[in-house]
Amino acid sequence: LNQRYEVREAIGRGASGAVYRAWDSFAQREVAIKVAHARVFEDSPEQNLIRKAWLNEVHMAGSLRHPYIVEVYDAGFGDDSAYLVMEYLPHGTLDPYTRPDNLLPVAEVLEIAYKCASALDYACRAGVIHRDIKPANLQRFGQGAAKVGDFGAAYWTQGKNDATQVMDIGSLAYMAPELFRQWVTPQADIFALGVVIHQLLTGHRPFDALDQATLMYRIINGQRAPLSSFRTGLPAGLDTLIDKLLARSLEDRYANWGEVLEALSHYCRNTPAADAATRERPAEAELYDR
Q1: Would you tell me how many other CB atoms lie within 10 Å of the CB of residue 257?
Q2: DSSP 8-state symbol, 285
Q3: Which end of the chain is more exposed for a tag (fewer CB within 10 A), N or C?
Q4: Which of 7, 28, 11, 27 is nearest to 19 (CA)?
Q5: If the chain, 290 residues long, is cut into consecutive pieces of 10 residues, what is the mean pLDDT of each piece?
Q6: 265 with 281: CB under 8 angstroms?
C-alpha cells in the first residue's frame, strides 16, 4: 500500500485476507483496508478460486453506491498483491447477534432486513447477484441498520463473459437449493436473507447438520422447525414470511425484491418497536431509485 494510508490496527482476519483500521491522509478519514494473504497467489485450485473472488470484488469496487452497501473507495490487484479500501464501520458484523443469548429486538431485526433487502434490490437491478449473504458479510451501523459488503462471490447477470464468473463459491448453510445445480437467480439472495433473518430472530439457522451431505439434504427438502421451537413470543405470521423466503421451489418463493420489501414493510409496521428509534416505517428513499 502507498503512503496515503497509515495502518492503525488489525481488526479482522479471514481465509483470504486480513482487515486493518487505517487513516487515509488524503481524504482525512478512517478507513478499513482488506489485504489479501500471500498464499492467495499460490498456484493451487483452492487459491485460484479465492484469487478469482478477489479479482471479482476489485473489478466491482465503487460500481455499486447505495446507503446500505459498504462503500469501496480504492482497490488494487497485482501479480502478488490485492487490497480493498472501504468505509470503516466500527460496530462490526451481525455475527454476534446470531447467538441465542445476544439477540436484537424483533422490530430491529425486521428494520435491518428491510434495509439489506433494499440494497440487494438495487444491486439486482444493476445486474448483480451477491451469492454470499450471511451475517459475517453484513456490517452493522447504528440501531436498526446494516450494510451489505463482500461482493467477492457476486454474479453478473448481464454484460460479463461467463468464463470470468466465480461459480463454486459461497457458504453452504445460506445457499438456495437451485445453487447446488449451478442455477443462479436473484431469488438465491432472497433465500439467503431468509436464513439470516431466521438466525437473527432465533439464534439458530433454519437448516443445520453436523455434515455437509445432511445439510444439503435438509436445504433441498426444506425441512425446518417452526420459529416458536427456538423462541417464544414472536409476532404471529413470521413463520409465513420465513416460509416464503425459504421456499425450495422458485414458484413458491418471493419472486423478486419488490415483493420482499412489501412483505417486510408490512411486518415493520405491525411489529411493536422496543423504542421510538425503530418505530417508524423505513423511508421510501431507502428503496433508492426504484
Answers
A1: 25
A2: G
A3: C
A4: 11
A5: 86 88 95 92 86 82 90 89 93 96 96 97 94 95 93 74 50 92 92 98 96 93 92 92 96 97 94 52 49
A6: yes
